[in-house]
């Protein structure tokens, strides 16, 4: 089996790391990958937004399975492109259709889906440039804080939470009239604020049935105590202590089942991962968002817990035989601490030499923004490395990761030292 993984983050390095030991793997490719994936797979320097280049690669490398990591190629229709091309139609694909990817690609589409299929979520209304006044009037009828969501993809930056009515009105106008967030913000979902603790749930769908994967909690803010700017993710923990059996059963019954049934009923042609962002409000689960891919940094603590042959799981997913998989999960706790460049998520420098990667440590170190330059590994992005450790409890796992981080250095290295503070 020849496999191509699209993406360049620690999530994709985790996929590679998990697949590389499979007995059924022949060749493993990543496009574009990073300095970590380069060690265990062949990196292909191709533009992942150019579907024709991807087609050429799929053919020339004789790829049997394509795994699409990030959301943008999915939202842009890469899965449909491969499935509808006669020359590619034998290739198995992990990733939903363009229509299915609207669950992430349009906040309005996903809210409408939740309402239609009775999936608990915050109340909402959607506005566009023709209904600005109605939007401003609506804001005045709901209690603060105000949640404004750009309809289209905005790399996690399209959600604004405003404390007072005047700033909410100003921002809604900025989005609808003044082009803040560009085209993604030309439609805005205004929704009720939910107060609670968040959890990331993951489901694998084969078009007919589904498998619930382990859950995780991620930490999005740059600063300790969940303060400061949003980032791509500063760390994660799995399993999540507050998600006990009773709460997980509620999630399954009230959220996962109606979501999967809705996907099938609406013929969304969904084969791949579904990430359900959940918030626990007074012991009840509500959906904050759907993502049509695995989470990053959650994947880095979920995949190590899966004991099955992951490549076999991917094949069975793509061939609609997920019901033959008996998921085996490691019950130990895993923690991931993300090392980021100084200045991130605002401007930061690249090209800083990373030392200590070859030392002995008790962690798995997965790469994100790294590249090889003159035989040295240097930083090449905001999020640089994910440092994952396991133990009987997440606190001890975190301690192991922090010990590993002490050994790895680059100029300006930053990481959060308080992960799990809220658990
Ligand atoms: P999203 O991109 O929809 O996941 O939103 C980004 C973040 O904004 C979430 O992870 C939440 O922390 C927060 N958020 C989104 N919607 C709400 C809501 N209705 N109530 C409270 N917080 C929210
Ligand atoms: N961890 C959040 C995300 O992957 O979007």
Q: Which terms summarize this structure?
A:
423 residues, alpha+beta
Give the arrangement of secondary structure elements.
Elements: E1 2-7, H1 10-19, E2 27-32, H2 37-40, E3 42-43, H3 51-60, E4 65-68, H4 71-75, H5 78-83, E5 92-94, H6 102-105, H7 107-116, E6 124-128, H8 132-141, E7 146-150, E8 159-162, H9 165-176, E9 187-191, E10 197-206, E11 210-223, E12 227-238, H10 245-265, E13 271-281, E14 284-291, H11 299-302, H12 310-318, E15 333-340, E16 364-367, E17 370-373, E18 376-379, E19 383-391, H13 394-407
How many whole angstroms does the radius of gyration measure? 21 Å
Sheet with most strands: strand arrangement? 14-13-10-11-12-15-19-16
Average pLDDT confidence is: 96
How much helix, percentage-wise, in residues?
25-40%
Bound molecules: adenosine monophosphate, glycine
Low-confidence stretches: none
Outline, from the CA principal axes?
globular
What is the β-strand count? 19
Oligomerization category of the chains in this entry: single chain
Give a short account of the largest sheet: 8 strands, antiparallel
Compute the separation of the termini in Å: 42 Å
Quickly give the structural class.
Answer: alpha+beta
The number of helices is: 13
- Estimate the strand proportion: 25-35%
């Amino acid at each position: 089996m020849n496999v191509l993984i699209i993406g360049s983050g620690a999530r994709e390095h985790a996929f590679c790391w998990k697949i590389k030991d499979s007995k059924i793997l022949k060749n493993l490719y990543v496009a574009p990958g990073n300095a970590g994936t380069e060690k265990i797979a062949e990196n292909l320097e191709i533009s992942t937004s150019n579907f024709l280049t991807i087609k050429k690669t799929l053919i020339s490398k004789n790829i049997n399975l394509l795994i699409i990591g990030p959301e943008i190629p999915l939202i842009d229709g890469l899965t449909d492109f491969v499935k509808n091309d006669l020359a590619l139609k034998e290739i198995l694909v992990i990733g939903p259709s363009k229509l299915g990817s609207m669950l992430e690609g349009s906040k309005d589409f996903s809210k409408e889906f939740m309402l239609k299929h009775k999936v608990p979520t915050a109340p909402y209304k959607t506005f566009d440039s023709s209904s600005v006044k109605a939007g401003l009037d609506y804001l005045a009828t709901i209690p603060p804080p105000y949640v404004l969501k750009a309809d289209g993809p905005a790399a996690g930056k399209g959600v604004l939470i405003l404390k007072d009515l005047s700033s909410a009105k100003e921002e809604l106008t900025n989005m609808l009239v003044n082009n803040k967030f560009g085209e993604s913000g030309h439609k805005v979902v205004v929704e009720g604020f939910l107060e609670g603790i968040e959890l990331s749930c993951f489901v694998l769908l084969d078009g007919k049935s589904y498998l619930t994967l382990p859950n995780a909690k991620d930490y999005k803010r740059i600063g300790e105590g969940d303060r400061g700017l949003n980032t791509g993710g500063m760390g994660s923990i799995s399993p999540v202590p507050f998600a006990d059996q009773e709460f997980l059963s509620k999630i399954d019954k009230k959220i996962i089942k109606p979501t999967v049934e809705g996907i099938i009923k609406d013929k969304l042609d969904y084969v791949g991962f579904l990430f359900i962002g959940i918030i626990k409000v007074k012991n009840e689960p509500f959906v904050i968002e759907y993502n049509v891919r695995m989470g990053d940094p959650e994947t880095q603590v979920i995949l190590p817990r899966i004991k099955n042959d992951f490549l076999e799981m991917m094949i069975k997913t793509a061939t609609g035989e997920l019901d033959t998989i008996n998921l085996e999960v490691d019950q130990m706790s895993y923690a991931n601490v993300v090392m980021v460049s100084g200045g991130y998520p605002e401007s930061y420098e690249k090209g800083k030499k990373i030392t200590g990667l070859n030392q002995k440590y008790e962690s798995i170190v997965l790469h994100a923004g790294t590249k090889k330059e003159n035989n040295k590994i240097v930083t090449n992005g905001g999020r640089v490395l994910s440092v994952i450790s396991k133990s009987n409890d997440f606190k001890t796992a975190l301690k192991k990761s922090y010990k590993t981080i002490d050994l790895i250095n680059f100029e300006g290295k930053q990481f959060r030292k308080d992960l799990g503070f809220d658990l």
